[in-house]
Amino acid sequence: MAEALTSEAILVATEEVLRRYGPAKATVVDVAKALGVSHGSVYRHFATKAALREAVTRRWLDAQHAAMEPAFDQGLTAAEMLRIWLQKLFDRKKHSHVEEPELFATYLVLVRESRAIPEFHIEHLVGQLARIISAGVETHEFVTDDVNATAQAVWDATDRFHHPAHAQEWGDPHIQDAFDAVVSLIIAGLRYNRSPSAAGDA
Amino acid sequence: MAEALTSEAILVATEEVLRRYGPAKATVVDVAKALGVSHGSVYRHFATKAALREAVTRRWLDAQHAAMEPAFDQGLTAAEMLRIWLQKLFDRKKHSHVEEPELFATYLVLVRESRAIPEFHIEHLVGQLARIISAGVETHEFVTDDVNATAQAVWDATDRFHHPAHAQEWGDPHIQDAFDAVVSLIIAGLRYNRSPSAAGDA
DNA sequence: GGACTGACAGATTTCACTATCTGTCAGTCC
DNA sequence: GGACTGACAGATAGTGAAATCTGTCAGTCC
After folding, report:
1. pLDDT tens digit string along B84-108?
2. Which of A3, A102, B77, B126 has the fewest CB atoms inside 10 Å of its own CB, making it the most exposed?
């Protein structure tokens, strides 16, 4: 008899099975086979197949969050930090999609399966944006009376460069120019923004 | 024998068949049946099923372009015109998606089928944006050294509010707030924008 | 006695088979 | 003689029986 079966070992095996067979073909039986146990044992640790896949997704998103944690470098302006953060997010997504399209598609399916997870994931990243904008407001580099709403607006305005629905556009040779133009427009806006409710356009 | 079969009559019948059966079920035989002719006759006017559907799509997009033509009202600032135009586009799309989801889905499938058409459609709308921004530059309300690139940036930054991939989010009760926040941010940026290449963030 | 197995019922997926559809064209009909 | 038909071949989609999968649980094995 080998070591006792752990949830951790099941998650690792499930990731491997998903990587090899893809989300449509990966079965609980496959996972059990990879671990050399019966599939009944897997159900001892995860109540349903959905719960198992959700756990894998959560694990993967946690790693994404950690990688995106912004560095508050003293030598950088908030605008520079914001541009670097958005570029990093874009580069990571683009690289993942271009270099490993199947794995990207697999995790896209997993993320879409869960209702609550994507929302939490986005809130986390928008929170990171809010911290950068907040730093800019403190140095009077940016103007806004609602940091969170503005962070959400920056997130929404850059949707094309992080939302997986637009992934196919990321191969376009001019996509970096489009990204730069949008980010420049946003940064210009942050220097001179008013809240939506107080906004008189004239 | 009825009137001679015209391309126009075939297009009208095809629209009706698409509306009733949806894009997956609508066949050339159905169209011919609706017109009381054999399906061979339809092929006399359109070389392939794809060409027929493309003609229907082109017809529909032309109507969309016409409806979005901006009004250069003397009493409005460029910012007001821009906000009105973007709101109109958003309202039209949202209304279409919420009120007639099946028809919206049908035309979404049709648009995706053709390679060249969507590109032309977007260029047309970005051109309308460019004219509004150009008007703002002339009155020194907006600052930019590349009107077309900036128009494209405004289009990209508002993707979430016109790209059909985001249609499901348009039912969110807070979507109008998100829209207002993004548009305010963009308009603030247009007042103080620099080109991507000349942009020093510090 | 608690981790694990394997047989099982119901749900889902697969696959071979059949229907229908697309596109062609020789022939018909004013 | 030109618009139209309808039978046809190859391609595509629908269908239903068989195989597989999910989730359960009584029983096995240290």
Report:
1. 999 999 999 999 999 999 999 999 9
2. A3
Written out in words, the top-level CATH class of the domain with range A61-190 is mainly alpha
Q: Does any CB of chain A come closer than 8 Å to the CB of residue B156?
A: yes
Superfamily of domain covering B1-46: Homeodomain-like (1.10.10.60)
CA of B196: which chain A residue's CA is closest? A181
Write the CATH number of the domain with boundaries B53-190: 1.10.357.10
Å: A55 CA to C8 C1': 28
Q: Provide residues 41-60 of A with CB closer than 7 Å to any strand D atom.
A: 43, 47-50
Query: What is the per-residue pLDDT across A8-56, written as a single tens digit (0 to 9) for each?
Result: 999 999 999 999 999 999 999 999 999 999 999 999 999 999 999 999 9
What is the arithmetic mean of pLDDT over B169-173?
Answer: 96
CB-closest option in B152, B178, B189 to A188: B189
The 8 Å CB, 24+ separation contacts for B2-9 are: B2/B36, B5/B35, B5/B37, B5/B41, B5/B44, B5/B45, B6/B45, B7/B45, B7/B46, B7/B55, B9/B35
Q: Which nucleotide is nearest to A41 (CA to C1')?
A: C4
Nucleotide with C1' nearest the B46 CA: C23
**Which chain B residue lies closest to A185 (C-alpha atoms)?**
B189
Domain ranges of chain A: 1-46, 61-190
Say how far A40 CA is from C1 C1', in Å. Answer: 19
SS3 assignment, position B174: coil
Rounded Cα–Cα distance for residues B153 and B82 (Å): 13
Q: Residues 38-97 of B near strand D (Cβ < 7 Å)?
A: 38-41, 44
Residue A185 CA to residue B68 CA, distance in Å, equals 24
Read off the pLDDT of residues B46-70 as tens digits, 9 standing for 90 and up: 999 999 999 999 999 999 999 999 8
C-beta of residue A127 within 8 angstroms of C-beta of residue A70: no
